[in-house]
């Protein structure tokens, strides 16, 4: 037996025997399995090794199931005799396993092998295993090379392909008996793991998922036998992991992550110090890899732990391309099989701390963020399965502009439609730019909604609900304002339902919607609706707009409500703003083919200037009624009406009350009609306004077919007539614009027919029209034609510039047909004998026009110029040629020529010879007069593509505004390609020497300036014109150098200038100063004047210094001060300033500062002797009047009002510390000569600006002075003002308050008349026989311009005993009665005596003193009353009356010096009534004397009369005849006006009673409906019982 065993052992170790046995075994297996099974070679050594080559097993389809190229095993010699055999080496090369399951069958291709070797279940009880059971075996090394494993599972829809170039295991100890494994190294070299996931077989039925069993922590599930595993190092080198989805056909873009084609390459993984502790595998993980997109995991390190209940990555540190992520992540489950239901059973926990994520890394997965360029910092915690995920304390920061703090809970993922989201944002800060980068869809609306302007967005709120059913609440704080929302949204099948509110606070929607006219909005709105589709939309919006800023005005209290349901819109708007009260309501029905509009609006009040809609004061009231169908003007059908319009401009009503636009059919023709105030018109026929551009293009194509293309639309159907008439529209235009005027009685009519041969008619008549300062009169345009020819003529009566006639009867005639046009421009067609203009033939070609001036002569500045015949201008898109174009006048000549033999050369030359500049520069266009004679040439090259201009000009005898300069040479060049112009301007004339040279870029890409100006004793008088209004009489010279650089947008000027012997007058102060020398340093921010000396006209010196700060000559700010002692600060007279004037010599200082739009001149002065300051409170203008006829004063010169500079404002503030050295005159009444002239003390502050504001503050206490007035320029008196009198100003100078006591003394006045009137026995009153000094006292108190004037008379030298006499008693009586006092004052001043108190005098004293603003006016009225009453007493009872009147008046006036003339007039006349007062007569005349327009005084008597006869006894009908003669002080002759007329006089109680009967007649003719709307008629006041009557003459 032993021998047999030995023999078998020997035979088995023989290779031939081994291979024979293997072939037998594989042959039997092939037969049993019905497939091919083979092994190419076997080398088995029973004692220590085995080698197997070429092992192959195929599946039942003949495909390779398993193939092993070479399998080696080495074990301990005689291992079967060893207690613990050691497997020293296991090697496998070129192995391949292919597991396949098709979509048609759920069985694997290897199942037939399992079935062949399967047996009945073993029911024999097994002995429990323990540490001592089993085989004790040790393994040292495993080396697998080129191993391939493919699993193709079409049944499930998942393929797995695995390959490893080498798998190497170096085991230190493998003790199966003691359950101890110690591996030194496990290395996978170039492994590849690719998973393809696609649709499973339709035959597959998924098994219901069964939750895994729940285990307790005390039970080991993976390591029941408590194995000990220690792996020192696990390495994966150059590995690949991939995921594919063949069903996803989306394109794979380079540089971006594709979920359906994932490739992680260059995977290098290291797992060290790995051990198995109970059920947990623990190790240190290091990983790096690159994804196909470019995303790279540079380094991932973590303490890795995997157990039956969790997979943990602690101390997580992940570095990618630009990101750094940490620090904890774990996946928890009940069993590893829970991974099959990862959504619900795997609980994730993560904690991120100071995690930095780059938007560039996120952009691999979200490409729109590629331009964001943000670094994101993330902190926070997350917990839960995918289906119930919660994140707390989230903190996200993106750069310096975006950060988020909040919490998030999502229940229901991955089905987003069924996921409940609960998001709370404690703080979200971002910007509009970030929003557009995070949400690229927002960029699509940035053209209308400027999200980018939200530079600061802060949000706090929540989102609760599902994607299709949620409530969103939040508050936004942005740089444009604040808003909050509370929105509920849900979908009901396909129709979403929403409701909620939106509130804004000062939100700048104008900036958001890029509308400069719109600004902030404060409102609260509610919305309730369903659907977004127009067909299913049902919504209601209710908004309360507290404030909205539009055109710079804040509208308040606006409420809107709108409803949309079943394609019917119904809305309303109500405004209750202080400057706008209106309501608007109506509907739009979209159910028809065309929408139907029915709107009504009522504008109850609107102040358009307050609303910033107009610059003028305009108020509007109107009603609107819109009732039409249509979507554009072509299908408009119905009416649009504005009625009951009331427009007021500057408190004057405009004649515009209605406008009506309607469309209807008349005789099967459509008529669009326009009717309104002063305008009417209609368009009748077949018309399409939207097609008019194509119609005009068709006409142009017919007339100029070579140049214009036919319209793209071949069907153009226009056949209509039109006619419009404008009445007195100028009064309407005035309420709309100040630029346009006239157009009264304008008519426009014509016709257009694009069918057949075509027809075109045009007639325009404009009697008068203006635009700004330009105007035309009698403008007529006539046009007629068809598709073959068109004729157009334009004639103008006058072309005006201001009041100057620029052109008289100009005429333009044009006729065009088939590319040829004849154009005649005649600047003065009144003279038909010759042409003043141009006559040209214009021929259009494919790419340009040819122009020939046939016979042309035109006038410029009343000088005739001639165009030489035989010329031609050919202007093409590619070249320009000019042949023989010459314009001449006497020896003056302008020639334009090119090389006609080589048109491609594109060069032409302009030659100027003896050109007299005033002959060619239109005088109407320039306010600066330029004179001189110019010669030179201008070379122009390639004007169409690469324009280049070279000019060399020489002007001699150059004068600018009559200031002679001399000879000036100008050389220049411009190149269009470089966009650069070079210049050199030289004036080498004594006193006017300068040189300006350099170059400047004129394009956006080249706008550099490089220039220099050299000045050499150059006169500065040329600056007078440009500084007018500020300074004048500027003289002196300047020397220096200025360098000009920078750009045209921001020029830079630097240099130093020296000014010598400068003279200048400061216009507003009237002071002329001399400056011996002044140095000015100029740079980009400062114009520095330094310290310099000012010398006034008295040769007194003042010290000055200052500078002008600026930003490249923008934002200029002045800062100057002048200090002087005894210096002249003011030197004006009445003609310079009608607010104040005089001479101020003072010790003081002047400050001049501020920007040019708010300049401040502050003068602080303490006057010295020689100061005389005038404050005129009134002027001397008067207007002559006649009892029935008003006469206008003729001959007053029209003085052009000085225009204020657009952006300039000057405020002058005078602080005058008045003292007795200064005399101040307050002119109360220039007509009567009432003047307060005083010396006193006080601080006066006067402020006046260029906008006409004038204020004055201060208390002026008079030390001494006088009150001077003149009686009708015949005699004058000087009252002495008593000390402590005062004048107080508190703003408006005319509203000053005065308290002045003045005295006039008469040295010797008889008191006899006082005694006669005061005592019965004159002899007993010794005082009556005496002459005493009499003081006339006047007290002015209250308002300066309307003071309360009281008069009193005192006897200063009479003792107290004398006052016991009758004289004293009567004087006391006079002083207590102001009428008597005034009467006696008049007597004392005019006759140096008291007047007797008789009846005539008493009548005179009834004149009173009320309404007299000065003493002079009061005394004048008193004198006239005395004279008239004396004549009335003498002629009493005779039926004859005598009238005597005197007046002083002024003619001329204005602000022009020496144009105001003071004159006097005495009128005397006799009146008489005859024949029972039916016949009334007046005869008399005027005597006029005073200064006239000539140097001599002129006196003249003029006579006149008036006769009136009452035709009816009641005097209602009268006939009048008159002759009135006035003296013309300008022509030194009488001017007589006479006439005859009839008048009607009627008494009435109310004005409408005058027209009562006619009104009743009109009402009777009205329709009943209108009669009922009128108010009830008033009772005729002429009937008995009327209680009030008023007399009116007509």
From TrEMBL:
The lineage of its organism: Bacteria, Pseudomonadati, Bacteroidota, Chitinophagia, Chitinophagales. It is found in: Membrane. Keywords: Membrane, Transmembrane, Transmembrane helix. GO terms for biological process: protein secretion. Residues 1568-1594 have a biased composition (Polar residues). Its main location: membrane. This is Translocation and assembly module TamB C-terminal domain-containing protein. PANTHER family: TRANSLOCATION AND ASSEMBLY MODULE SUBUNIT TAMB. Residues 1097-1548 form the Translocation and assembly module TamB C-terminal domain.
């Amino acid at each position: 037996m032993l021998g047999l065993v030995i023999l078998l052992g020997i035979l088995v170790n023989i290779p031939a025997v081994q291979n024979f046995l293997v072939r037998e075994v594989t042959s039997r297996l092939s037969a049993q399995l019905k497939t091919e099974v083979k092994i190419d070679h076997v080398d088995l050594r029973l004692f220590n090794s085995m080698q197997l080559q070429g092992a192959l097993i195929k599946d039942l389809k003949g495909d390779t199931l398993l193939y092993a190229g070479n399998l080696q095993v080495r074990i301990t010699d005689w291992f079967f005799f060893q207690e613990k055999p050691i497997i020293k080496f296991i090697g496998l090369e070129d192995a391949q396993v292919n597991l396949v399951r098709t979509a048609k069958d759920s069985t694997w291709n290897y199942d037939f092998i399992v079935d062949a070797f399967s047996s009945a279940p073993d029911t024999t009880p097994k002995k429990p295993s323990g540490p001592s059971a089993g085989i004790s075996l040790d393994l040292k090394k495993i080396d697998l090379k080129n191993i391939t494993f493919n699993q193709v599972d079409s049944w499930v829809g998942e393929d797995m392909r695995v390959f490893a170039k080498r798998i190497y295991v170096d085991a230190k100890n493998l003790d199966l008996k003691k359950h101890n494994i110690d591996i030194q190294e496990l290395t996978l070299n170039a492994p590849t793991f690719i998973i393809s996931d696609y649709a499973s077989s339709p035959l597959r039925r998924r098994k219901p998922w069964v939750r895994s069993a729940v285990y307790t922590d005390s039970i080991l599930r993976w390591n029941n036998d408590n194995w000990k595993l220690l792996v020192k190092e696990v390495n994966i080198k150059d590995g690949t992991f991939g995921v594919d989805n063949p069903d996803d056909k989306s394109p794979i873009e380079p540089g971006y992550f594709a979920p359906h084609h994932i490739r992680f390459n260059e995977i290098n993984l290291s797992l060290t110090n790995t051990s198995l502790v109970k059920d947990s595998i623990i190790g240190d993980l290091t990983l790096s890899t690159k994804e196909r997109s470019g995303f790279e995991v540079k380094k991932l390190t973590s303490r890795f732990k995997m157990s039956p209940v969790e997979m943990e990555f602690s101390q997580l540190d992940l570095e990618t391309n630009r990101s750094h992520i940490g620090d904890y992540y774990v996946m928890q489950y009940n069993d590893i099989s829970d991974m099959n239901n990862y959504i619900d059973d795997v609980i994730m926990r993560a904690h991120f701390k100071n995690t930095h994520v780059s938007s560039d890394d996120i952009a691999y997965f979200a490409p729109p963020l590629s331009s964001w360029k943000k670094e994101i910092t993330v902190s926070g915690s997350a917990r839960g399965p995918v289906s119930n995920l919660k994140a707390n304390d989230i903190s996200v920061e993106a750069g310096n502009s975006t950060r988020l703090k909040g919490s998030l809970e999502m229940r229901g993922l991955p089905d987003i439609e069924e996921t409940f989201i609960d998001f709370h944002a404690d703080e979200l800060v971002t910007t509009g730019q970030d929003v557009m980068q995070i949400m690229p869809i927002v960029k699509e609306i940035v053209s209308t909604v400027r999200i980018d302007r939200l530079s600061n967005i802060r949000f706090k709120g929540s989102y609760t609900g599902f994607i299709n059913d949620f409530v969103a609440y939040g508050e936004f704080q942005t740089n444009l304002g604040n808003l909050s929302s509370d929105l509920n949204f849900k979908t009901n099948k396909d129709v979403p339902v929403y409701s909620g509110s939106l509130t804004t606070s000062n939100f700048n929607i104008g900036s958001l919607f890029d509308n400069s006219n719109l600004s902030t909005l404060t409102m609260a709105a509610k919305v309730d609706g369903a659907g977004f589709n127009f067909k299913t939309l049902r919504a209601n919006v209710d908004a309360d707009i507290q404030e909205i800023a539009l055109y710079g005005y804040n509208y308040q209290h606006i409420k809107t409500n709108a409803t949309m349901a079943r394609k019917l819109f119904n809305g309303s708007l109500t405004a209750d703003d202080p400057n706008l009260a209106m309501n608007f309501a109506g509907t739009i029905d979209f159910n028809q083919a065309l929408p139907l509009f029915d709107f009504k609006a009522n504008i109850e009040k609107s102040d358009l200037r307050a609303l910033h809609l107009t610059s003028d004061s305009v108020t509007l009231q109107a009603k609107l009624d819109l009732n039409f169908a249509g979507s554009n003007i072509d299908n408009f059908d119905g009416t649009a009406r504005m009625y009951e319009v009331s427009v007021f401009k500057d408190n004057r009503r405009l004649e515009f009350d209605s406008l009506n636009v309607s469309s209807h059919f008349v005789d099967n023709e459509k008529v669009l009609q326009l009717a309104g105030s002063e305008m009417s018109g209609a368009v009748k026929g077949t018309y399409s306004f939207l097609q008019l551009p194509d119609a005009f293009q068709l006409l142009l194509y017919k007339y100029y077919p070579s140049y214009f293309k036919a319209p793209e639309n071949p069907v153009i159907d226009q056949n209509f007539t039109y006619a419009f008439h404008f009445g007195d529209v100028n009064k309407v235009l005035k309420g709309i614009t100040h630029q346009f005027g006239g157009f009264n009685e304008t008519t426009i009519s014509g016709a257009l027919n694009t069918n057949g041969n075509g027809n075109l008619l045009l007639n325009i008549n404009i009697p008068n029209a203006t635009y700004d300062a330009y105007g035309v009169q009698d403008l007529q345009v006539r046009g007629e034609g068809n598709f073959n020819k068109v004729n157009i003529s334009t004639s103008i009566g006058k072309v005006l510039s201001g009041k100057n006639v620029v052109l008289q009867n100009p005429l333009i005639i044009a006729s065009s047909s088939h590319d040829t046009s004849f154009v005649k421009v005649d600047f003065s067609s009144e003279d038909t004998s010759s042409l003043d203009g141009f006559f040209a033939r214009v021929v259009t070609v494919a790419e340009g026009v040819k122009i020939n001036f046939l016979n042309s002569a035109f006038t410029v500045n009343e000088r005739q110029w001639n165009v030489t015949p035989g010329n031609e201008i050919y202007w093409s898109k590619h070249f320009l040629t000019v042949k023989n174009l010459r314009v001449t006048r006497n020896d003056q000549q302008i020639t334009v020529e090119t090389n006609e033999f080589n048109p491609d050369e594109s060069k032409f030359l302009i030659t100027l010879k003896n050109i007299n500049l005033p002959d060619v520069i239109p005088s109407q266009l320039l306010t600066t007069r330029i004179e001189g004679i110019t010669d030179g040439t201008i070379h122009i090259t390639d004007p169409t593509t690469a324009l280049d201009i070279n000019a060399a000009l020489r002007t001699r005898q150059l004068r600018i505004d009559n200031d002679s300069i001399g000879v000036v040479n100008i050389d220049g060049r411009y190149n269009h390609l470089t966009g650069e112009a070079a210049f050199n301007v030289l004036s080498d004339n004594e006193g006017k020497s300068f040189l300006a040279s350099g170059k400047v870029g004129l394009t956006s890409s080249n706008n550099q300036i490089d220039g220099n100006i050299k000045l050499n004793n150059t006169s500065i008088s040329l600056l007078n014109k440009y500084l007018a209004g500020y300074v004048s009489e500027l003289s002196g010279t300047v020397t220096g150098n200025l360098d000009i650089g920078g750009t045209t947008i921001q020029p830079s000027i630097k240099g130093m200038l020296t000014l010598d012997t400068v003279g200048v007058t400061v216009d507003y102060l009237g002071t002329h100063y001399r400056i011996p020398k002044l140095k000015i340093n100029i740079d980009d921010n400062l114009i520095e004047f330094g310290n310099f000396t000012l010398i006034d006209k008295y040769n007194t010196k003042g010290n000055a210094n200052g500078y002008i700060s600026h930003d490249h000559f923008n934002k200029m700010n002045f800062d100057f001060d002048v200090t002087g002692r005894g210096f002249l600060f003011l030197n004006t007279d009445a003609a310079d300033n009608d607010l104040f004037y005089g001479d101020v010599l003072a010790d003081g200082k002047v400050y001049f500062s501020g920007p040019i739009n708010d300049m401040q001149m502050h003068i602080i002065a303490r006057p010295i002797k020689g100061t005389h300051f005038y404050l005129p409170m009134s002027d001397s203008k008067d207007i002559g009047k006649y009892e029935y006829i008003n006469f206008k004063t003729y001959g007053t010169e029209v003085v052009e009002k000085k225009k204020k500079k657009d952006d300039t404002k000057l405020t002058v503030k005078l602080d005058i510390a008045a003292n007795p050295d200064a005399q101040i005159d307050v002119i109360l009444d220039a007509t009567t000569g009432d003047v307060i002239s005083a010396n006193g003390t006080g601080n006066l502050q006067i402020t006046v600006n260029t906008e006409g504001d004038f204020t004055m503050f201060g208390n002026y206490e008079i030390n001494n002075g006088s009150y001077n007035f003149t009686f009708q320029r015949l005699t004058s008196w000087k009252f002495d003002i008593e000390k402590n009198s005062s004048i107080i100003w508190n703003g408006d100078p005319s509203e000053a308050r005065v308290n002045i006591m003045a005295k006039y003394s008469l040295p010797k006045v008889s008191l006899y008349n006082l005694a006669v009137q005061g005592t019965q026995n004159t002899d007993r009153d010794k005082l009556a026989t005496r002459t005493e000094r009499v003081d006339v006292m006047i007290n002015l108190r209250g308002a300066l311009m309307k003071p309360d004037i009281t008069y009193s008379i005192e006897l200063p030298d009479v003792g107290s005993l004398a006052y016991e006499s009758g004289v004293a008693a009567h004087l006391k009586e006079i002083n207590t009665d102001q009428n008597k006092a005034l009467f006696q004052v008049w007597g004392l001043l005019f006759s140096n005596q008291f007047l007797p108190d008789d009846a005539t005098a008493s009548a005179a004293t009834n004149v009173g003193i009320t309404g007299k603003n000065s003493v002079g006016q009061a005394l004048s009225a008193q004198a006239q009353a005395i004279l008239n009453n004396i004549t009335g007493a003498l002629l009493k009872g005779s039926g004859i009356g005598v009238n005597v009147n005197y007046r002083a008046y002024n003619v001329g006036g204005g602000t022009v010096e020496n144009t105001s003339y003071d004159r006097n007039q005495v009128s005397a006349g006799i009146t008489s009534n005859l024949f029972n007062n039916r016949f009334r007569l007046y005869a008399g005349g005027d005597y006029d004397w005073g200064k006239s327009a000539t140097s001599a005084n002129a006196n003249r008597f003029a006579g006149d009369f008036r006769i009136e006869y009452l035709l009816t006894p009641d005097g209602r009908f009268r006939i009048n005849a008159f002759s009135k003669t006035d003296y013309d002080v300008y022509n030194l002759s009488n001017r007589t006006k006479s006439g005859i007329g009839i008048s009607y006089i009627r008494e009435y109680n109310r004005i409408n009673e005058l027209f009562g009967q006619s009104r009743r007649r009109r009402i009777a003719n009205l329709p009943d409906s209108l009669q009922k709307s009128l108010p009830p008629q008033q009772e005729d006041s002429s009937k008995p019982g009327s209680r009030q009557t008023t007399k009116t003459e007509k």
